[in-house]
Amino acid sequence: MERIGFMKVLVILCLICGTGRARAAVHRVNHKAVYNHTLATILVEYASAVYMSDLTQLFTWTCARCDGLTKGFDVIELIVDVQNCLQAYVGVSTNLNAVVIAFRGTQERSIQNWIEDLYWKQFEMSYPGMPDAMVHHGFYTAYHNTTIRPGILSAIETSKALYGDIKIIVTGHSMGGAMAALCALDLVINLNKKDVQVMTFGQPRVGNAVFASYYKQALPNTIRVVNDHDVVPHLPPYYSIFPHKTYQHFPREVWLYNIGVGSLVYPVEKVCDGSGEDPSCSRSVVGNSISDHLVYYGVELGCDIAMSCGIVMDPHVKKLGTMDERGNLVLLKNPAISVLKLNATDDATRSSI
Ligand SMILES: *[C@@H]1O[C@H](CO)[C@@H](O)[C@H](O)[C@H]1NC(C)=O
Ligand SMILES: *[C@@H]1O[C@H](CO)[C@@H](O)[C@H](O)[C@H]1NC(C)=O
Ligand SMILES: *[C@@H]1O[C@H](CO)[C@@H](O)[C@H](O)[C@H]1NC(C)=O
Fold first, then answer.
1. What is the C-alpha separation between 129 and 135, in angstroms, rounded?
2. DSSP secondary structure letter of residue 51
3. Is the beta carbon of 39 within 6 A of some atom in ligand 1?
């Protein structure tokens, strides 16, 4: 009996999710995004670490979330836009042989307020150089109109000088995922970077259908992971009756959910279709969970301390970086000595950086 039940679950699982079919389809067109579970579990740790508020620990990659699968990461630059409450870093993972860029999600107010704003307040603007493409004004300016973009671009040049022209992987969670997408697009379109890959977690919609279609062409190697009933990927809302007026996701979604009967529960990772709005993926359920938004692959995504826009500046931080008149901070590794590993407990090393 037990065995038959088990087989039934497997059959149902295959019928409902069809992951096998979807994966096969993805593999046939090999320049498209291929979902790699191992890579996802690594990148989610990068997206989690960028939330850490102790800047010295983050810069020296000694924070509590800087261990595990990301151990040995070489941070090139940490950018903290205090004015706009944004945080991002650029570094090199020798394991992945890639530059990794990670963006923090929103810390400005309570997540509930932010989600409500995303539902009701949809200020859009034209995406420059793409006729009819509209994007969310808040996400666009967070990347393009703050200290974040110049910081990222200079760090990419530094990384190139130190490690050569290696692949670039851009990641982020929540609003950080939206910024990651806009950053990757910027790198491909304006900086002519060739090998750019994107993986985001719990990302909101960024723009309209025209934007999604431009994005898809520029960045075929993009995976948007959505966890179960996470509310944020459902926002700003999608109205299928106004296909040209509505916000629309770009592909390719990977939807994580559980299927189960009684005590037998199986996690499923469904690779969705190339439309960006696969009706059989997360759109088949109601997005009503904040807790599903805050944990992906068992990794916590959110600030480590309960504090609005929490940034911990210890006296060493000023030695590590430069601060502008508005209090925004850039911690930049000096290319000349960057091959030396920072010693987190050694003041002499720090002050020479
Ligand atoms: C998936 O990613 C991991 C980590 O980058 C890599 O080692 C592995 O070869 C990849 N698997 C495939 C099938 O590409
Ligand atoms: C960027 O910031 C400047 C100055 O704060 C402002 O005048 C401009 O309108 C902003 N651009 C966008 C696209 O919001
Ligand atoms: C860091 O510096 C301390 C004190 O100078 C030293 O004891 C320790 O071994 C160093 N750690 C590394 C990893 O070099």
1. 12
2. T
3. yes
Q: What is the pLDDT of residues 2-27, one digit of tens each?
A: 444 444 443 333 333 333 333 333 33
Q: Which residue ranges make up each domain of the chain?
A: 37-338
The residue to mutate among 143, 145, 146, 182, having the most atoms of ligand 2 within 8 angstroms of its beta carbon, is 145
316's tokens: 């060493």
Residue 95 Cβ inside 6 Å of ligand 1? The answer reads no
Distance CA 176, CA 183 (A): 10
In DSSP notation, 208-273 reads: EHHHHHHHHHH--SEEEEEETTBSGGG-S---TTSTTTSEEPPS-EEEEEEEEETTEEEEEEEE--
Q: In what order do the strands lie in the sheet with 124-126?
A: 124-126, 134-136, 207-208, 247-248
CB of 78 sitting under 6 A from ligand 1: no
Give the model confidence (pLDDT) of 88-113 as tens digits: 999 999 999 999 999 999 876 678 88
Q: Is residue 223 within 8 Å of 170, Cβ to Cβ?
A: no
Cβ 346 under 6 angstroms from ligand 3: yes
Q: Which parts of the chain fold into alpha helices (H)?
A: 2-17, 19-28, 37-49, 55-59, 111-120, 137-144, 148-163, 175-189, 209-218, 291-294, 315-320, 347-351
At the top level of CATH, the class of 37-338 is alpha beta
* CA–centroid distance, residue 148 to ligand 2 (Å): 14
